[in-house]
């Protein structure tokens, strides 16, 4: 008989970091594509758009209110983050309306990748470590995050 598998508890921060990792992987994959890989670029962009939009909504609903409430300068951090999310949404929507044959397509994708990489660094290196010191049920928040994600998709 096999030994029971021990479930490792997942926190909301773990889940968000997985999303970030996948987004960065997607940006790198896109950057490595050739100039003529139009079909693949469009496919990668569509999947990335869906994943990223879901991530932004889930983060804003589950995590950002806690950042605003518990962190010093929390409201300012959230305002800055929401402006970055809005910029990302604008670029995602712009890409959604563009043809991959458009000469500005790759450059628009690159701008989105740069913006998101900067935003992710800020969250992972500054905001999340501060939040982890707050007494919150991060495992329960992981469940809440997944619920919000299911409602968005
Ligand atoms: Fe964010
Ligand atoms: Fe994030």
TrEMBL record:
Domain Hemerythrin-like intervals: 12-131
Source taxon at top rank: Bacteria
UniProt xrefs under Pfam families: Hemerythrin (PF01814)
Protein name: Hemerythrin domain-containing protein
UniProt source species: Aquirhabdus parva
């Amino acid at each position: 008989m096999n030994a029971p598998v021990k479930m490792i508890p997942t926190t909301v921060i773990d889940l968000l970091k997985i999303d970030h990792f996948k987004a960065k992987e997607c940006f790198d994959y896109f950057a490595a594509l050739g100039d003529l890989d139009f079909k693949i670029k469009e496919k990668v962009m569509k999947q990335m758009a869906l994943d990223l939009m879901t991530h932004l909504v889930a983060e804003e609903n589950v995590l950002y209110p806690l950042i605003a409430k518990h962190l010093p300068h929390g409201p300012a951090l959230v305002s800055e983050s929401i402006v970055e999310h809005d910029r990302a949404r604008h670029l995602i929507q712009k890409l959604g309306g563009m043809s991959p044959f458009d000469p500005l397509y790759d450059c628009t994708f690159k701008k989105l990748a740069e913006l998101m990489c900067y935003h992710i660094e800020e969250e992972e290196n500054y905001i999340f470590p501060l939040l982890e010191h707050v007494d919150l049920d991060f495992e329960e928040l992981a469940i809440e995050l997944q619920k919000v994600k299911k409602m968005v998709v």
